[in-house]
Amino acid sequence: MHQDILNCYTKFMDGTKIIMGEDLRDLEIIRKGITYSKENLQELRVLLRKHDFHTIEGEIHFFKSIKPAVNGYLKFFVYIYRLELHFPITSFKIKQKYLKMEMCQIETKRLKYVEFYRYYKNKETSLDHYYFVRQTERIESILDTTHFFSDPEFSTSHDNIYAKFIKYEILESHLKYLAITLIREKSREDNNTHKPIIYKDSNWTSSITDLVELIYSLKAARAINNGSKELNQMISVVEQVFGIKIKNHSNIYQKIKYRSRNTTKFLDHLKLSLLSKIASED
C-alpha cells in the first residue's frame, strides 16, 4: 500500500485521539470531529485515485481496516451530535431512560447483521476477497443496499457495514460513560441538597446565559489552573457555589457565539460597570 495512504490514516488516528479526549458533550467539539473525519475520508478518496493497489491484500487491508475506521468515527460523531441535540433536560430518570433506549437501539441494529458481526468479532478472513475487493460482490451476500449508490471506486459491498460496527463499539463506550457521569451528577446533587454555610445567600441573580459566557471566558483566558481545568469541572464548581443547575451549556454557548451583535454582552457590561465604579470613586 502506498505510503501516502498510510500516513493519512496515521495522521487521522492521532488527531482523533486528541478530539476523543475533549468534552464530547460540547457541540462545537463534536462538529470538529465530524469535519475532521469528512476531510480525512475525502483525502483517502483522492489518494486512492492517485495510487491504486498493486495487490489484492493491499485492497483488502484498505477496505477492511483503514477506510472503515475513518468512516466509523465519522458515523460516531454524527450520531452523538444528534444525541446531544435531543438529550432531555428534565429529570434524572428521563435522562437515564433516554440512554437505555439508545443502547437498546444499538443492539437492535447490530442484530440485523448478526452473522456478519460474528465474522467481524472473530476477525475471520476466509471471505475477505468477496467482502472487501471492489466489483467482486455476489448479490446474495450484499447486506447493505447503500453500496449500490456509493462510489464504486471507493467502496466494496461490506466496508460500510464494518464502519457501522466500529461506530457501535465506540458509541457503546461513550453511552456507558454518559450513564456513569449521569449517576455521579445525581449523587453530587443529592449530597449538595443543603449548601455549605459559606455558600449560603450566594445566589446568582443574573441570567444563566451570562454565567455561561463568564465561565467560557475564564476557560478561554486560561484563568483557572492555567487552562487545564475541564469545562465540565468548572461548571460543576459554579453550580455548587450558587446552588443552580446549568443545563446544555454547549447549546447556550452556541447561541452566544452566533449573536447577531454584541457577542460578549455580559463581559462588556462587567467592564462598563467596573469603569463606572472607578470613575465615581475619583
Question: Could you give a quick summary of the protein structure above?
Answer:
With about 280 residues, the protein is mainly α. It has helices spanning about 5-20, 25-50, 55-85, 90-110, 115-120, 130, 160-190, 210-220, 230-240, 250-255, 265-280. It has 11 helices and no strands.
Sequence-ordered SSE layout with sheet pairings:
Elements: H1 3-20, H2 27-50, H3 56-85, H4 92-111, H5 114-121, H6 128-131, H7 159-191, H8 208-220, H9 231-242, H10 249-257, H11 265-281
Keywords:
elongated, 282 residues, mainly alpha, RteC domain-containing protein, single chain, Tet_reg_excision_RteC
Structural notes for this entry:
The protein is an all-alpha fold. It is built from eleven helices and no strands. The radius of gyration is 24 Å and the shape is elongated. 18% of the residues are buried. The mean pLDDT is 88.
